[in-house]
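Checklist before submission:
- one chain only
- standard amino acids only
- sequence pasted in full

Submission:
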Amino acid sequence: MPATLKQLTDFLVNLGIEQVAHTQKNYLAHLISVYKLMQAAACDEELCRAGLFHSIYGTEKFQGFKLPLSQRAELAELIGQRAERLAYWNCLMDRASLDAALSQSSEPFLLRNRETGESISLTRRELHDLCCVHLFDWLEQAPRSRFGWDYRRQAYRQMAERLGGPIQQTYERVFASAPVSAAT
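Returned file contents:
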């Protein structure tokens, strides 16, 4: 039986992440907000779980908390293989390699592991799922981020257009509140 949202948040609380700062709130609040934003856009539960744990191993920009990679199996048991794999890719990818993959039209879509330099080969569906997780992380924090509205703006727009439907609508709604100078 899959863990409940309460069990998932209890796991995170037991790691002490509510004490970690993240974009003018605490890390736990950011993770829960990403999860709920994804739910509101009709993402499936596995994607929402990946969103809840999207930065659990640390990312290119966020190093405030890093669950040791030796705990991947434990996390996969808790949130599911697909969700854990998406969270892992989101954490370890070189973001420029994701941006480059967005311009590709055919598989395989290659990401670069920013720590090992190894290539990660994704299918079209895996790229779609990773874009979803990565985009919602940004949509949740863009209004508060020190990086500003224009940070990787073209890449995030490409992700939203690629994903379409309610996800693209969420992107448009969030970016409708951007200052005029950032609206280009």
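Reviewer check: The two ends are 46 Å apart (CA to CA).
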